Amino acid sequence: MLKIALIGCTGSIGRQTAEIVRRYPKEFCFSALACGRDGAALGALCAEFAPKAALCAEGTFSPPAGTVRLSAGEEARLFEDCDVAFIGAGGFAGLKYTLLAAAAGKKIALANKESLVCGGALVMRAVRERGLDLVPVDSEHSALFQCLAFRREAAFERLVLTASGGPFLHLEKEALARVPAKDAPRHPTWQMGAKITIDSATLLNKGYEVIEAKWLYDAPFEKIDAVVHPESIVHSLVYFADGAAMAQLGYPDMRVPIQLALTYPERLPCAPQLDLPALGKLSFLPFPKEKFPCFSLAVAAGRAGGTLPAVLNAAAEEAVHAFLGGRITFPMIAETIQGALDAFPREEALSYEQLAETDGKARRFAARYISSHGK
Ligand SMILES: NC(=O)c1ccc[n+]([C@@H]2O[C@H](COP(=O)([O-])OP(=O)(O)OC[C@H]3O[C@@H](n4cnc5c(N)ncnc54)[C@H](OP(=O)(O)O)[C@@H]3O)[C@@H](O)[C@H]2O)c1
User: Fold this and answer.
1) Would you tell me which CATH number, out of the four given (1.20.1530.20, 1.10.1740.10, 1.10.8.50, 3.40.1260.20), belongs to the domain 305-375?
2) HEC letters along the chain
3) By alpha-carbon position, which residue is closest to atom 35 of ligand 1?
4) Ligand 1 centre and the CA of 11: distance in Å?
């Protein structure tokens, strides 16, 4: 029985992880659950799965008998009794949990992108020093992991990330200024939380994935490419020195990489198999960097490193929130990020506390930028 500490249990990734545990009650259980605000949903999950400990980081929550309620400052206790720390929280908030799980010496299943985007150097140092198993959950990085035969250190020539292109792929650049917030959450192929869905529309998400690939596979930026693949069937590819390429295919369904992160190298039944004749053709298009500047902003911040990816992410979290609230236009998401990156000097990223301080400052900068440049 694998004991899982699930962080972000009330979100899109968290709910799908719970589905897997529900389906395989003899294989998996939850030793701890944590969420942000939704204390009611956390309470229901605790009543169903009876974890030893639970934490509602930003809301109120009454635990059922038998579950210990943890408070802010006690996050490390979430990992005391687990075999795997599953980090499915959204945003910069995930980094703290990833570092605590690493400090506890646990295997980490990592869905939270921001951990590597903002704190890649700190996370990878902790993982290396303690010899921990860090397993990607993001579908693209799970695909690369599978193509590399589950060896993050395996040799390769090039990594190619696939992108659906998001809901605005075929719009003219000028039309992007008029897209209403209600149209962006309609992702063509994946069902996800609000922030990552907007990041998929701006293609910031693909920039994040380039940074994640750099850390996970120790890949120089020159060896990481992105290509548009609207059907989202090929989840990513690895090119090898001899010209061979390996790809991982499947219907878009996050439960597959979530479950595999728990069971690898073994596999359990999870999703329907591909019906190739029904699929017909698969298409691949050049990546539209010019139309969607967030991708290049993310890659540039990733290349610069230090505290700049945390600045990028903080500005992006504020800007996406403002876009969803109807306070800024779609192109202003990129403008806010650019404004923040121009305003902050690069510093070496030395500690979580320093990154948290940078995150706070960059958020306050972005909030001011949005109120003076917004609608
Ligand atoms: N959804 C996907 O298909 C997908 C695919 C690949 C990668 N990811 C990545 O996985 C992460 C989660 O994405 P999502 O789509 O599941 O987001 P989501 O639906 O918005 O869920 C976010 C989760 O994080 C929790 N949370 C927020 N602040 C927290 C805190 N301080 N402590 C503990 N938990 C906190 C939320 O709790 P409350 O709801 O209770 O506030 C919620 O459970 C993101 O980094 C995303 O980029 C997602």
Assistant:
1) 1.10.1740.10
2) CEEEEEECCCCHHHHHHHHHHHHCCCCEEEEEEEECCCHHHHHHHHHHHCCCEEEECCCCCCCCCCCEEECCCCHHHHHCCCCEEEECCCCCHHHHHHHHHHHCCCEEEECCHHHHHHHHHHHHHHHHHHCCCEEECCHHHHHHHHHCCCCCCCCCCEEEEEECCCCCCCCCHHHHHHCCHHHCCCCCCCCCCHHHHHHHHHCHHHHHHHHHHHHHCCCCHHHEEEEECCCCCEEEEEECCCCCEEEEECCCCCHHHHHHHHHCCCCCCCCCCCCHHHHCCCCCECCCCCCCHHHHHHHHHHHHCCCHHHHHHHHHHHHHHHHHCCCCCCHHHHHHHHHHHHHCCCCCCCCHHHHHHHHHHHHHHHHHHHHHHCC
3) 36
4) 5
